[in-house]
Design brief:
- The protein is mainly α.
- It has one domain.
- Helix 2 packs across helix 3.
- The longest helix has 27 residues.
Length: 131
């Protein structure tokens, strides 16, 4: 999402300021909700509700990001339902890991440029952001 200049909702950013650290924020929130949910789930059902809400949020955000990426690069959907979010939602829901790898490979060529896990967008500063 950082490489595509998307916000926390998977939509194109409109502000020109410095973007917030999306990956770091999602990682901290996910780990926190996992720990809190695990502790709370031991006594009540609220922990499971937290996980469900976060899971639905991530499904929606990832679907929006995939849909915006397809539109930005004129990638045709493979679903018979036309150009709507059905194709993206099914891809994310049934194979989220494959969708993430597909999006990463579309925005970066790992054969030419190595990944750098210490940067915000996973690329070295001298590498092109979109390949």
């Amino acid at each position: 999402m950082e490489r595509l200049n998307l916000d926390f909702f998977g939509t194109p950013r409109t502000d020109s300021g410095s973007p917030p650290p999306i990956c770091l924020t999602y990682t901290i929130v996910t780990i926190s909700l996992f720990v809190i949910g695990f502790i709370v789930a031991a006594t009540t059902q609220f922990g499971y509700i937290l996980w469900a809400i976060w899971g639905w949020y991530m499904l929606i955000v990832f679907t929006c990001a995939r849909m915006n990426m397809r539109k930005q690069y004129n990638i045709e959907p493979i679903c018979c339902c036309g150009d709507n979010c059905c194709d993206d939602c099914c891809s994310v829901y049934f194979c989220g890991c494959c969708s993430a790898i597909q999006m990463a490979n579309h925005t970066h060529d790992p054969d030419k440029y190595e990944y750098n896990c210490t940067t915000r967008d996973g690329l070295n500063p001298e590498d092109p952001h979109i390949v």
